[in-house]
Amino acid sequence: MWDGPFYRVRRDGYEICFVPGAGEDLDEVCNVDMWVIRDDGDRWSGTVFTLAEVHRIMDRQRQAGEPEGDYWWCWDGLIVRDAGVRSMVKVIDGLVAAGEHETVLRHVGFEENA
User: Which top-level group of life is the source organism from (predicted)?
Assistant: First the structure.
């Protein structure tokens, strides 16, 4: 559901909060900031990229002569195969179910009003 600039997906015990671009088609999202917010207020953040988006970013950086055109990294980046919030949710649900979100995503602490 939309909540201002956020697109929230409610799950049992947590929600996933995405920040897509204004007017961006949710089925085409390929680069998006997100949070997993547990019911106790504990939060984990990341940026989800598709493989194609990482390739596009690296190509753009190479064409600009930047050294990052030969490599790419992101501290809290999660690379997924398919575009779209729906497929990203499926991946994140799997990470949460396995507890791997605590390794893949960045812990940002508890919400103060939780």
Answer: Bacteria
